[in-house]
Amino acid sequence: MTRPRLAVVGNPENRRVTMLLDAAARSGLPTPRVVSWREVLTGGGARFDADEWVRLDSPGENPEVDAMLRGAGDPTRIADGPRWYASLLAAVGTLRGGRRLTDPDDLALLFDKRRCHAVLASNGVPVPISPTSGADAPVPRSWPEVRELAAAAGLWRFFVKPAHGSSAAGVVAVETAPGGRVQARSSVESAADGVHNSLRVRRLTGEAEVGALIDALAGERLHIEAWLPKPSRQGRAADLRVVVVAGRATHAVLRTSAHPMTNLHLGGQRGDLETARAGFDAAGYGWDSALAVAERAAACFPRTLCVGVDLLPAANWRGAAVGEVNAFGDLLPGLTGLPGRADGLDTYAAQLAAIEGWADAAAA
Fold first, then answer.
1. Contact, 228 vs 260, CB < 8 A?
2. Burial class (CB in 10 A: 0-12, 13-18, 19+), 182
3. 157, 169 contact by CB (below 8 A)
């Protein structure tokens, strides 16, 4: 059996990288070569051997790398997302050689919510309605423009998202009502030097407060999409993160939250996955049909080994839509694979097993 040589571009101290190295050791694979984002950004790129399989991992959680990508400033600030995006793609363009596990063109789409939404929709993947879907769609530059676009699309409950953001940074969940009433929830906090990401979701009320926050985010190339009702149990809304490896859904986690953002770092909790399985099956939609929606979303990015799909179950479990597709959506510590799909494997071990299959096929 061909034993693939692996390389990963990431932040060496980050648990994403260390968990990959641990999985490789458990699998009996050679230790992957680690190339730091700092080395790439300061050294004009990196070169890989023709037989190295190259994984790109998140450049996040490193203040020095963050400053090189989007400029100096507090790492918690929500600003300069377009600059970060352009810098990341430029850095990826300096990588030479190797066989890519993360396709650069796919990465460019996955980190542009507006373009990614359009790609999903054009391929028949169910997604929330959006008036900002696609590269040529309007770019709202103020709260009045956001509200006008949402109203024209028939949306009274909607999310506003920075196009190049991740981990719910800068996301605002907005609810409007007749008579000009408006409220919102977000983890964004305003300060004298701008707006910052926090770990606390708070409520904003009134046109002035909500409008001021949206105006402060308007330089981030905003994306608007419908806020779909989710299933709820005991006051907690639920959705799913589904990891798709080599085209097949291998891992899933049910996320529940008392507020619209279910991200685990914002207070979301892992729920009993059987709740989702049973809900889909009892509604007649089917658990396998839900996983197939995630696989259809991943199929839009066939040159990338692994993506994380945010799957939005319908409130009655009779359908599912895709909220986002994440390039680095596999960080789910302690989660083992779905029965019959990745039994006993964590997300990293499942990817390594898939790489071995690819390597054997290529060598045949």
1. no
2. buried
3. no
